[in-house]
Amino acid sequence: MLGNFSYQNSTKLYFGVDSLKFLDEELVKYGKNILLVYGMGSIKKTGIYDEVISYLKKNNKNIIEVANVMSNPTVAKLNEGINIAKDKNIDLILAVGGGSVIDYAKALSVSINLNKDPWDEYFVKFMEPTCKIIPVASILTMVGTGSEMNAGSVITNEETKEKIGHVFNSEVMPKFSILNPKYTMTLSIRQMNAGIYDIFNHICEQYFSGTDDNVSDDIAIALLKSVVKNSLIANKDPNNYEARSNIMWLATWALNTLIECGKTTDWMVHMLGQAIGGVTNATHGETLSSVSLAYYNYILPYGVDKFKRFAIDVFNVDNKNSDIEIAKEGLNKMKEWMKKLNLPLNTSSIGVTKELIPLICKNTIILDGGYKVLTTDEITKILNNSL
Length: 387
Description:
Elements: E1 12-15, H1 23-27, E2 33-38, H2 42-46, H3 48-58, E3 62-66, H4 75-85, E4 92-97, H5 99-109, H6 118-124, E5 136-140, E6 152-157, E7 162-167, E8 176-179, H7 189-207, H8 215-236, H9 241-254, H10 268-280, H11 284-299, H12 304-315, H13 323-340, H14 357-363, H15 376-386
Parallel strand pairs: 1-8, 2-3, 2-4, 4-5, 5-8
Antiparallel strand pairs: 6-7
Helix pairs in contact: 7-8, 7-9, 7-11, 8-9, 8-12, 10-11, 10-14, 11-13, 11-15, 12-13, 14-15
């Protein structure tokens, strides 16, 4: 393990079919005013909403609601939530939903008491909060982002077409998260697979960086193999509890900061995907799958050894040819797996056109943790290759 690092994750997890009952144990730790945040109404159709409300009422909580959080929460929606919660003396924000809802709750937690523009403060200037932070907790209904056990938040500015993430300090992490795999079984196959690819790519973003032999990569490889195996089982039988529970657990460990220890980490697929999402409003996991192959084929020559190991250990490519041939075959096998999940393999299938590429390029944040620091010309080339 090269470099120096610190590791802390303070989120408490409750996992399994009986996990919601632990709300009783947690709610007594917080005051009376609960801000309940949820999405576009699916939790009401599935009965999860009624279950959560019953626990809140049993614990004598005052419930303030922010509903209809969209899949790519916007600045306007963030401001709406701030206005609802302002002066309500919120003691806990309880997010019930997937990654977008939890991301939104975190953005609210650092913005309700902020006397500045939260977009400018957190997503343009990347400042850390200096105001009082309201604690967040989550009840997960869709897996993929890992937001239930990290401090990340992604918000979209509809005016500028920018979609930007901010990883806050550990105080913003959910205090507790409830993970019941059965809650995810109401998702469509398409939603499930978008989340699965998000999990897979989170691991890739951390694996495809650095050149040393380290424990973080060993864990990443094991997680990647498990994602591939369980995704195929879940696609054959979406009600397979074991596969769905494994996928839920994989999502959490893919992005709870563990496997980034000792790594530089890449995240350029996410920067490209978020820029695409800001322009097209496409589903996050699908923006990642649509640009991944173009990006990884471009940077492969700069990180052949890690791509070779990926090919052999994750996709069982024979170790008989040259290193570069093995590495390329690994990406071919990855493409075959993605096809089985009916994931978008090019950006034109999710609404990108040549005319949009200059704006996407302009909105792509360039990071330096991967094998190649891209120029704007290279980003343009990758985006053209992805069409």
